[in-house]
Structure formats: structure tokens, C-alpha cells
Description:
2 domains, mainly alpha, 11 helices, 0% strand
Amino acid sequence: MVKHIRWHLKDQHQGRKLVKFHYTFFVEKWGEKMNVSDQEVARWQSNGSPSNIFNYIQNQRKTRILCHQEEIDLEMIVKKIKKEKTETGLRQNIWLIQKYNGSTSPDMIQAYVAMLEKLEGLETSCQDMTLESYCSQMIESQIEYRSDTMDFFIADLLKELWKTEIFNISSFYFHFSSTIRTLFERDSRALNLHLRQIFVMMNDELDGTEEPERVSWVKENLAKKERED
């Protein structure tokens, strides 16, 4: 395993070649072909050489582009979710959605939204089928595919979720404030402007009945762009 490789070689280029060889061998053994660049291995090393280079590189790679057939299949999943009436059927569709983790297809957003709308009114004794559990699961399954494209995808997902009838400001804060804070910490002006659109919509819906802490949260995030300007 790569985690047992020690960087004893003085020539770092040779070290990267060694890791690439082991990584390619491991992947090919499992019937997959994933070429690893010198830059990816160098990034792995510069980040403290996490023990599992395979997971690290996969999670750092750009987001997944679906082929035409996968797009068609994902569209069908969205339609199935909207028609589904049973907990077993919803669980099966959750598993099907997971097959497309890493994709930023607009249909992924539609799949997540449709699933949460179903889970909102679902009576279940299974913790993993609750709205709270799935909110966490869907974000974690996507945000680990770290890229600018994925960050914007998550911002778009949050914007679409706010447009639904599922969340008010308090519940939205409960489920997604940590994710929003993480995205703001990317220190990307373009991403911050994208996120701010969510708070513009929230601010427009304030009616004086919200908790003061949540109103402050909305106002503070609205003010981020003003402070930048």
C-alpha cells in the first residue's frame, strides 16, 4: 500500500514516479484506470502525505462529467423520486443518486430537492431516512470533491433549496450554516457574490417574526459584499 511508502529518495521526481507506479498498479488491479499526474502527487506530499493517497487524489480531482446516458439515467431517477410513495423506494433512489456523487449536473440538484421534499413528510423510525440526516449526507458526499465548480454547485443547490417550502430561516441555518461558512472561507469573491444571492432572497422574506439571532445572521452575510466594496 502507498501509505507504507517512505520518501527516502532524494530525487523528488523519482519519488513521484514511485507513487504513480504503485497508484496505477492498485487502480488497475481493481479494473479502473486513473492516470495520476506529477502535480497531484506533489500536492499530496505538500499536504502532509495523508495515509490514503487514493482517496486523497480522488477527492481533490475536478468534478465528474456525466456521459449522455448517465444524464438520461439521472433524469429518470428524478422522475422516479417525484412519483415514489414508499420508504423502501426512496431508500433505493438514495442509493441510485450516490452513484453520481461528484457530478455537478443540474439534475443532481433536482434529485436532491425532490428527495428532500419527499423526506420532509416521511414518517420513519430509521435515522438515516430523516430530513436532517439526508441534508448532512448530500452535502458531505459532494463537498469532498473539492473544486471551484463543486463550490458553485453547492451554492446553487442551497439557493434552490431555499426556494422550496421545506425550510424557514431557522431550519435553513440549522442544516446549512456550517456549509455556508465553509464556502465563504474559500475567500473567492465570485463565490461570495453567488452565496449572497441566497441572503438577498432571505432578506426579502423577513417579516418580523424571526429570531433575532437568525435575522442577524442574514444581515451579516448580506453585508459581506458591502465590506468588500
